[in-house]
Predict the structure.
Amino acid sequence: MQISSKILKSDTKVVVFDLDGTLYSKRGMVKHMMSAAPFDWRMMLIERSTRKQLKGIWTGDEGSFYHLYFSTMAHGHFFSEMYAKRWYETRYMPLMVKVLQKWYKPVQWLLPFLQQCREQGLRLVVLSDYGHTKEKIQALGLDESLFDWVISAPELGGLKPAPELMARVAATMGVLPQQCLLVGDREDTDGELAKSVNAPFYLVKQ
Ligand SMILES: [Mg+2]
């Protein structure tokens, strides 16, 4: 699919991109992750179900978010909150960065579209639900300076589609949430986030 400046609204001032599945196609990700770390599958499943359970949560800051996140991961399992934190930070996220570096490239429409946005004076943000956002951008071969702000939802204190996330992004950029166009691959997280603050949304199809 191709995305061009036609998707911009007349009052768009900021374009907010999701990362995974939006800036690159996630096709084959599970297979690549499993073959890179076959003994981590159980932790990966627990992480995934924790993410589902806490979808849309808002705690207000990074520290309390991650405390809730890792304690939820550990709850009812054989490992501690500290173990979950260590695994996520020193194993899971670095692994994802490595897999991205080895197998993935940005979608073809990205660089021309960023250029078109720049020509129209728009500012550009990446808002991801996962951590290590800057490392992942670099692993895709992209320069972080293509964007004005690269941030993760957990760093702000929540997960999509918590409306506070968009309020924070818009306030930081000095615009109204309705002046931000969200571009993402998921209706239930990116789309709902846009809807929650009455901002326009463009669904990326891989
Ligand atoms: Mg996504």
